[in-house]
Amino acid sequence: MEKLPKIALPVIIAAVILVIVLAKSAVTIGSGEAGVLYKTFDNGVVTDAPPLGEGFHIVAPWNKVIIYEVRQQELFEKMKVLSSNGLEIQIDASAWYEPIYNDLGNLHQSLGENYLQRVIQPAIRSAARSVVGRYTPEQLYSSKRDAIQDEIFAETKKILDKQYVQLNEVLVRDVTLPNTIKEAIERKLRQEQESLEYEFRLVTAAKEAEKVIIEAQGKADANRILSASLTDKILQDKGIEATIKLSESPNSKVVVIGSGDSGMPIILGNQ
Questions:
Q1: Partners of residue 165 on adjacent β-strands
Q2: InterPro entries annotated for this entry (predicted)?
């Protein structure tokens, strides 16, 4: 019984040491994360193997694991850039990005954990300056927002090529112009709209006038044709037809044949 404590003590010490070693060697990688393994005595960062995935891992206590978020992330940027005529424009944009999973070791080795500040922010700022500098404030304000969004995305993506980062989207949320420029553009747009409306009214009035002229010309032509076709003979024939119909009517009247002008009948009623 007296020897038991002497045997138990080393066991307890060994167990404590084992727990400490396991605590230093155990790594838990959470959801949406991955780990880059750094081998202290074997060439440092591991770049020729996939990163450590989600879950529990045991590594040698002298090695390290650097954990990265590998989900899609969002960067918000407010940038002041110059338009094609030198005016200062503020662009509010955001970029969706994520590290390339299988290149996480290379990303850590070449750029480190602050890769956002090292490459992504400078890339999107440079692309925004380049793209916005091609357009006037009026184009940026009215019709070119989608175009500059696509162009900033394309140029940023080109800059980030081979930087172990994947750019998914660039969104231009707002374009802010100096108030004086904004008011001048809005005034010009209103004037252009009023001019278009006035031209539309003129065109509509011209078409209506043309329609009236055509209708009047048609009536005049019809009357001229009708007048030319009504000879005395036709009028006499029509008068005779009317006389026959009147004579067959039960209404009280007196029909005098051949007493009117050109031999047309005169019809006398009882009133």
A1: 99
A2: Band_7, Band_7/SPFH_dom_sf, Prohibitin
Q: Compute the distance between CA of residue 148 and CA of residue 140 in angstroms, rounded to an integer.
A: 8
Amino acid making up residue 92: D
Q: Which amino acid is at 158?
A: K
Cα–Cα distance, 151 to 154 (Å, whole number): 5
Q: Mind listing the pLDDT tens digit for each residue in 38-70?
A: 999 888 999 999 999 999 998 888 899 999 999
Contact 45, 61 (CB under 8 A): no
Strand partners for 171: 94
| pTM for the predicted model, two decimal places | 0.61
Closest by CA position to 87, among listed 138, 27, 12: 138
Percentage with pLDDT > 70 across the chain: 65
Distance (Å, rounded) from C-alpha 106 to C-alpha 99?
Answer: 10
Query: Does 4 score more than 60 pLDDT?
Result: no
Q: Which of 79, 77, 74, 75 is nearest to 140 (CA)?
A: 79
Which tokens hold the place of 184? 């001048």
CA distance 49 to 112: 18
